[in-house]
């Protein structure tokens, strides 16, 4: 089982990024997948989750700005992030059950 995140980058406030989490070794559509983020010195925070039935969850701080989706054919989950702020700066990780990717860095700065 492997999860590989990509799409992190440096972006200006108000900008957008789309993160990807590509899974191998299992079919994503049977599981809930979550996006988490972590800033050095702080606890890892749950950002969004998409369940096997397609239902979605967002932490209050990203509601209306972030959108999670899943492409079962590509076995990939995406996190579309719009109207980014410096407070969104973090390493973003995807998670399924006990498995984690290595993360992708998002930096929001002028």
Q: Provide the residue-averaged pLDDT.
A: 96
Gross geometry: globular
Q: Regions with pLDDT < 50 over 5+ consecutive residues?
A: none
Number of helices: 0
Taking all Cα atoms into account, the compactness measure Rg is 13 Å
How much of the sequence lies in strands comes to over 45%
| Secondary structure: helix percent | under 10%
Please outline the helices and strands.
Elements: E1 2-6, E2 10-11, E3 17-24, E4 33-38, E5 45-50, E6 56-58, E7 66-71, E8 76-81, E9 90-96, E10 99-100, E11 104-108
Parallel strand pairs: 2-11
Antiparallel strand pairs: 1-3, 3-8, 4-5, 4-9, 5-6, 7-8, 9-10, 9-11
Structural account:
The chain is mainly beta and 110 residues long. It has no helices and eleven strands. It has strands spanning 2-6, 10-11, 17-24, 33-38, 45-50, 56-58, 66-71, 76-81, 90-96, 99-100, 104-108. The strands form two sheets. Strands 2, 4, 5, 6, 9, 10 and 11 form a seven-stranded mixed sheet that branches. The chain has a four-stranded antiparallel sheet with strand order 1-3-8-7, with no helix packed on it. Strand 4 (33-38) and strand 5 (45-50) form a beta hairpin. The chain is globular, with a radius of gyration of 13 Å. The termini are far apart. The mean pLDDT is 96.
């Amino acid at each position: 089982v492997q999860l590989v995140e990509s799409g992190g980058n440096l972006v200006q406030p108000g900008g957008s990024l789309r993160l990807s989490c590509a899974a191998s070794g299992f079919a994503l559509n049977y599981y809930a997948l979550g996006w988490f983020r972590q800033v050095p010195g702080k606890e890892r925070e749950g950002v969004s989750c998409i369940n096997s039935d397609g239902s979605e969850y967002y932490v209050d701080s990203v509601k209306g700005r972030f959108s999670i989706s899943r492409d079962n054919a590509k076995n990939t989950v995406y996190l579309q992030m719009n109207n980014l702020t410096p407070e969104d700066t973090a390493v973003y990780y995807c998670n399924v059950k006990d498995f984690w990717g290595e993360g992708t860095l998002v930096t929001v700065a002028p």
